[in-house]
Amino acid sequence: MTTSPRPPLTGKTRLVGVIGWPIEHSVSPPMHNAAFEALGLDWCYVPFAVAPERVAEALSGVRVLGLRGINATVPHKQALLSLVDELTPAARAIGAVNTVVIAENGRTLGHNTDAAGFLRSLREAGVAPEGASALVLGAGGAARAVVYALASIGARVTILNRTPARAEALAADMAGAAAGEPPRAGALTPEALVALGAGADLVVNSTSLGMWPHTETSPWPEEVPFPGGAFLYDLVYNPRRTRLMAQAEAAGARAVDGLRMLVHQGAEALTMWTGVAAPVEVMYRACERALEGG
Ligand code: NAP
User: Fold this and answer.
1) Burial per residue of 138-174, b for 16 or more beta-carbon CB atoms within 10 angstroms, e otherwise
2) Which of 34, 147, 160, 186 has the smallest set of CB atoms within 10 Å of its CB?
3) CA of 152 to the centre of ligand 1 (A)
């Protein structure tokens, strides 16, 4: 696809970016720059490789350099919690900052747009999660945003994780945010999937199983039938169709990957920085092209 070149960078160009370690595979720069181009905004989004021990310096640096905001990806989302001037309730509850808004006076506000991005993409797929029975697989960073999002709108959440103590800690952390009953937790075993799968309206994979290069892996054992009446949301988006999605679809279930969540968390961030509605479909197509290597 041909796109018109962005205007030359000048002293008026507004800068934003993303910090991560490593950062070279991030699709956020093409996603945001495509959005700025489509909107005709003289903004530019730059990737920065920042070593874990240098996050505080990086935050000071971007303030001094006049950036309007930054995204943070692995492994910096937790470190920013104690470095920003203020946190939103979602960022505090989830325990991670993925978007920083930097005011004109340099004051920093830490947000988490992953939870909102997840919910928006779920609703877009036609799922009404309020009151639904949700089985969340995994208890890492992504699961924290998913469990917060679901529990805070009244879904009944059970977290299953390879390391059950992490699932229990996550359930306890999110109990205060729950609009309905507090999340429950257990071990990710075939027995638990058989027992809980049958009653689930929604299954969310927030483990890293199935992600490139381990595309043959799945958190759902082949011998356990996937519940055909459930909706599968797989947070993995590389590959676009995971082994778990194939298992779910073979059982008659609807399944989506995590790319729309990535796009919607980016769209939320872009709107916070610019005050402009984000061109979601432009951003989605830019991600698709980036993942295809285009
Ligand atoms: P993380 O913090 O490292 O957590 C990884 C999770 O996977 C943990 O629950 C871990 O269990 C589990 N796991 C790893 N290997 C396993 C195995 N062999 N068997 C069973 N469980 C295993 O990672 P994360 O940041 O949460 O990311 C998880 C996935 O979500 C990744 O694929 C990532 O790309 C995706 N993600 C997508 C989006 C999006 O916008 N779509 C956003 C964020 C993340 P233990 O606790 O037992 O180690």
Assistant:
1) bbebbbbbbbbbbbbbebbbbbbbeebebbbebbebb
2) 186
3) 21
CB 231 within 8 A of CB 203: yes
- Structure-derived torsion over alpha carbons of residues 177, 126, 191, 156, reported in degrees to the nearest 10: 30
34 phi and psi, to 5 degrees?
Answer: -65, -40
Confidence band for 6, pLDDT divided at 50, 70 and 90: confident
- Catalytic residue, candidates 68, 76, 77, 120: 77
Say which residue the tokens 């999002």 belong to: 149
Q: How far apart are the first and last CA of the chain?
A: 9
Distance of CA 228 to the CA centre of its chain: 26
Q: Ligand 1, from 76, 208, 243: best to mutate by most atoms within 8 Å of Cβ? A: 208
For residue 227, give the nearest of 127, 135, 119, 129 by alpha carbon.
135
Mutate to test the pocket of ligand 1, among 18, 204, 207, 232 (most ligand atoms within 8 A of CB): 207
Average pLDDT of the residues in 119-137:
96
Residue 1 has pLDDT above 90, yes or no: no
Residue 64: is its pLDDT beyond 80? yes
